[in-house]
């Protein structure tokens, strides 16, 4: 028997990945995602440090109320996005999920830094949505516009594969639509340059997300 040549070895098929290898890759991916979320949050904090300090919104201001309420709103979107990334079956849905999670985590860092730079607590004395005209009427069972109910979040956490893909897209479309309504509220009532600039960026991003979310949902339903 002759020894295999270099050509023989080059043509030989690569060994199939083992279950352990795939599990290791997934663990690595989860760790990398966790690190990316932390980096996004830190970048948001750094961005928030550039907020002008010549004028400081008060505790009951539109800006403070928006920062507090939108932080809570974003936190749910991050949870939903991570669920889609970690357990979804559709590659596009998983990518949309992680993109939303990372973007909104960074924006949460920015808004929390605003509050610190204004000398305000993360939670204020005002009810949810009190900063927006007619806002309190939009709060249903303690939930701000577009937010998923505890029952819907439980369904999302229990779902797997294609069921999760579709449910995530449906819930996130509603979530972003409500979030944009809140963003319009601060854009129409704030004259803080950094707040207006950041809020407009949020709106642009979420409008772009909505196009991708709806297209993906149409494709999966076809």
Descriptive overview:
There is one protein chain. The protein is 69% helix and 0% strand. It contains seven helices and no strands. Mean pLDDT is 86; it is low at 1-17.
Note the gap between the termini.
57 Å
How does the helix and strand content classify structurally? mainly alpha
Give the ordered list of helices and strands.
Answer: HHHHHHH
Radius of gyration: 22 Å
Shape: elongated
- The unreliable regions are 1-17
**Percentage of residues assigned to helices:** 55-70%
How can the largest sheet be summarized? none
**Beta strand count:** 0
- Give the strand content: under 5%
Q: What is the typical, i.e. mean, pLDDT?
A: 86
Tally of separate helices: 7
What is the element layout, followed by pairings?
Blueprint: H1 6-11, H2 19-48, H3 62-87, H4 91-117, H5 150-158, H6 161-187, H7 193-221
Give a quick rundown of the structure:
With 222 residues, the protein is an all-alpha fold. It is 69% helix and 0% strand. 36% of the residues are buried.
């Amino acid at each position: 028997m002759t020894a295999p040549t270099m050509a023989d070895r080059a043509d030989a098929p690569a060994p199939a990945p083992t279950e352990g290898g795939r599990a290791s890759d997934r663990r690595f991916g989860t760790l990398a995602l966790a690190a990316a979320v932390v980096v996004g949050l830190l970048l948001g904090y750094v961005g928030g440090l550039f907020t002008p300090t010549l004028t400081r919104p008060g505790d009951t201001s539109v800006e403070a109320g928006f920062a507090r309420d939108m932080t809570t709103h974003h936190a749910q979107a991050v949870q939903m996005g991570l669920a889609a990334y970690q357990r979804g079956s559709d590659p596009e849905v998983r990518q949309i999920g992680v993109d939303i999670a990372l973007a909104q985590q960074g924006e949460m860092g920015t808004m929390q830094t605003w509050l610190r730079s204004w000398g305000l607590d993360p939670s204020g004395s005002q009810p949810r949505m009190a900063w927006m005209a007619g806002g309190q009427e939009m709060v249903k069972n303690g939930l701000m516009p577009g937010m998923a109910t505890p029952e819907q979040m439980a369904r999302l956490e229990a779902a797997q594969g294609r069921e999760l893909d579709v449910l995530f897209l449906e819930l996130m479309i509603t979530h972003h639509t409500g979030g944009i309504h809140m963003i319009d509220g601060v854009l129409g009532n704030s004259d803080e340059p950094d707040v207006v600039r950041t809020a407009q960026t949020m709106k642009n991003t979420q409008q772009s997300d909505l196009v991708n979310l709806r297209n993906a949902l149409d494709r999966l339903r076809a």
